[in-house]
């Protein structure tokens, strides 16, 4: 189900799965290599070609059709070398993404603080301030007004 979207994998665990999935015993030297390979964009066309259904979002890949897909198998040592390489490189990329995400999160937080300060304190850091009457806002510039929304909307 949805193998053409990359919903395909190898598990080291045994247990109960949904009836929508097929479980096979895998006969390949390095299962990590197989997992990397079938999740690559190279196999999407095969999964699409061998899947059937009324509309793309509901295509299924039958057990018979799974067995018809060609798989390219390098020697065991090369499978392991490729899997080790991909594990290492993607781990470094995932760490870089994580660091960038932390930076993005901090920048978004800074952006929100800048927006909040600009719309509640103005742009002049030396402006005289007065109590806004709203506890969570605190003080606002002295020349600002406080109005209820209802007075801002025209009928």
Polypeptide structure, described:
42% of the residues lie in helices and 4% in strands. It has 4 helices and 2 strands, in the order ααααββ. It has helices spanning 31-38, 44-50, 63-66, 76-121; strands spanning 129-131, 139-141. It has a two-stranded antiparallel sheet with strand order 1-2. β1 (129-131) and β2 (139-141) form a beta hairpin. α1 crosses α4 (76-121). It starts with 30 loop residues before the first helix and ends in a 14-residue tail after the last strand. 5% of the residues are buried. The model has no long low-confidence stretch (mean pLDDT 88).
Key structural traits:
mainly alpha, two-stranded antiparallel ribbon, 4% strand, single chain, 155 residues, 2 strands
**Parts with pLDDT < 50 across at least 5 consecutive residues:** none
Percentage of residues assigned to helices: 40-55%
Number of extended strands: 2
Beta-strand content bin: under 5%
First-last Cα distance: 53 Å
- Globular, elongated, flat, extended or rod-shaped: what is the shape? elongated
Largest sheet: 2 strands, antiparallel
Q: Give me the Rg, rounded.
A: 29 Å
Structural class: mainly alpha
Overall mean pLDDT score? 88
Condensed summary:
The chain has 4 helices and 2 strands. The protein is mostly helical.
């Amino acid at each position: 189900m949805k193998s053409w979207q990359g919903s395909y994998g190898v598990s080291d665990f045994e247990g109960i799965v949904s009836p929508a999935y097929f479980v096979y015993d895998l006969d390949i030297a390095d299962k990590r290599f197989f997992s990397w390979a079938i999740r690559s964009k190279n196999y999407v066309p095969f999964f699409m070609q061998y899947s059937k259904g009324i509309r793309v979002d509901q295509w299924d890949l039958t057990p018979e059709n799974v067995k018809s897909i060609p798989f390219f198998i390098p020697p065991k040592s090369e499978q392991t070398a490729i899997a080790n390489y991909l594990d290492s490189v993607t781990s470094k990329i995932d760490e870089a993404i994580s660091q960038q995400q932390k930076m993005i999160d901090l920048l978004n937080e800074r952006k929100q603080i800048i927006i909040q300060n600009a719309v509640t304190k103005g742009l002049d850091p030396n402006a005289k301030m007065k109590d806004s009457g709203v506890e969570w806002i605190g003080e606002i510039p002295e020349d600002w007004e406080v109005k209820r929304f209802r007075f801002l909307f025209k009928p």
